[in-house]
Amino acid sequence: MAEKPKRPLSAYMLWLNSAREQIKKENPGIKVTEIAKKGGELWRGMKDKSEWEYKAAKMKDEYNKQMQDFERNGGSKDAGTKKKKDGENLFGYRLE
């Protein structure tokens, strides 16, 4: 059976991936966490996000098609997700 398709990136993440180097160049020594923060500020200030929203929508459509094929071929929406056992906490340790 084929692997479950990965979820598509959001419009913001597509944009941030393309803008990351420019943000680093304009802010030398910036920390990784600060890149995301600065990116968020720039994204909120953007007037025209249509290019990125269009790309994200195309990726989501492709993902939905891949998921339909995956499910049609016996895959489950929950494939690849690990279920918590009774008595386990978030980190997988047994609670006694």
TrEMBL record:
Protein name: HMG box domain-containing protein
Listed GO biological process terms: regulation of transcription by RNA polymerase II
Biological role: Found in condensed chromomeres. Binds preferentially to AT-rich DNA.
Claim: Signal is one of the keywords in the record: no
Family: Belongs to the HMGB family.
DNA-binding region of this protein: 5-71
Ranges of residues in domain HMG box: 5-71
Any GO molecular function: DNA binding
SMART domains given in the database record: HMG
Region annotation Disordered: where it falls in the sequence: 67-96
Biased composition (Basic and acidic residues): 67-88
GO CC, any one term: nucleus
Subcellular location: Chromosome; Nucleus
Keywords: Chromosome, DNA-binding, Nucleus
Stretch forming the signal peptide: none
